[in-house]
Amino acid sequence: MPSLFEPLFGHAQIDSAAKAFADAEHDFxxxxxxxxxxxxxxxxxxxxxxxxxLMPNGVAWAVTLVAAAAAGKTIVPLPTxxxxxxxxxxxxxxxxxxxxxxxxxxxxxxxxxxxxxxxHIDPExxxxxxxxxxxxxxxxxxxxxxxxxGVRLGERQITWSTRALVEASQASRTDRYLSILPLSLLxxxxxxxxxPLSVGGSTYFDRETADxxxxxxxxxxxxxxxxxxxxxxxxxxxxxxxxxTELLTKGQIAPGSLRFVAVGGAxxxxxxxxxAVLLGIPIHEGYGLSECCSVVAMNRPGARTAGTVGRPxxxxxVTLEDGEIIVSGPSVTAGYLGxxxxxxxxxxxxxxxxxxxxxxxVLGRKxxxxxxxxxxxxxxxxxxxxxxxxxxLALACVCGSSDRPLTAVLMPAPAAEPWFMAASEADLIxxxxxxxxxxxxxxxxxxxxxxxxxxxxxxxxxxxxxxVRRNAIAAFLSARNEQAA
Length: 485
Known about the structure:
The chain is an alpha/beta fold. The chain folds into 2 domains: about 5-360, Rossmann fold (3-Layer(aba) Sandwich); about 370-485, ANL, C-terminal domain (GMP Synthetase, Chain A, domain 3, 2-Layer Sandwich). It has helices at about 5-15, 30-45, 60-70, 85-95, 155-170, 185-200, 205-215, 220-230, 235-250, 270-280, 380-385, 415-420, 425-435, 455-460, 470-485; strands spanning about 20, 25-30, 50-55, 75, 100, 115-120, 135-140, 150-155, 175-180, 200-205, 230-235, 260-265, 285-290, 295-300, 310, 315-320, 325-330, 335, 345-355, 360-365, 370, 375-380, 395-400, 405-410, 445-450.
């Protein structure tokens, strides 16, 4: 029996009545979850090899993922926040032969020529499961530039990463995980489904919040955490900022139930992190990428070092070559879909260095590095992190080159748009200089532009999941300067 499924059987036998997964519609015990997985896996074993999962967050998503894995399938999560065209591209590129839905998600109907199956989860069926060996997962991201690539991960990488995360986060059967990120994100898939299964913990899927986050519409988090009182969760830096700002505004603190909140996907502004800790949010910054099965380094409970992403996971070797982070170990991808198999270490394309205690500090993307007219190297992420310490800003992007000054593009949260859109360039520059006062002079932007999130989306300057498209923004600024000339 594949080792990833052993805990599913073991915890169900120890206490089949213990809570496992729940959402607004379902509340499954360990025994019920095993029964539902067993039934669906049996149905899938005789169906096509490559399957897509296209449904909103919830218990059905978890059952479908584990059942498809047990049936030995190649699983392709299809983000519900992607456009129909993006999903159609992934389906064609990955060779998806069957799309698994919850029977309600209508986008599947637009994918003509691809079979769909409305999944029915039965928590009362006999618990007979005979897992097939060697399932695979193919992860696509919207990307900041270019065509998305499918990252190939096998059972070996998923199993190893799950165990490493259990150890690093000190997860246990008493954990109650709150899932608010889309499950099509690799880290959320691991943290919300595989980690709880491994330790016998439980997960609540807040579908409404996850859907709002996927579409960039979330405005409140304090109530969600207060209502569910979880012990653990995973956030993006933008979400942490929303939560911190909300708690400060309301004069509240985070629930005392929390013991571990992982934050990753982008740098966390130091001032935001400091406020979070004071408000009772036990944040633990981490770093990773899909090509290394999500997490590479993470701050551990009781050993967080502010300003770093912690030590590499035990079992991974992380080295630096000309400042570039290179990862070796069992979580490294088998390669991109349609490309030759990858063997050996993975060059991440990220720049970083270690502190004296072995904690990793990530500076930014190597290919984003800006060389100024004075020959100084500037990682734009470094400057953007300083800018995003202003809670009014949702996103920021810094552009520049040897013949163009550093320019800060500021995208405020909707509530703060009136001030930013009415501000003069002098006002914006004054704000930028204040926010970057701790940086060396050569890294402080000389120009500033404010854009609403609506304009940024309309001009396709940000991705569906809220990342800046640097090349598109640079081209936008260039066209804007030419028009003003």
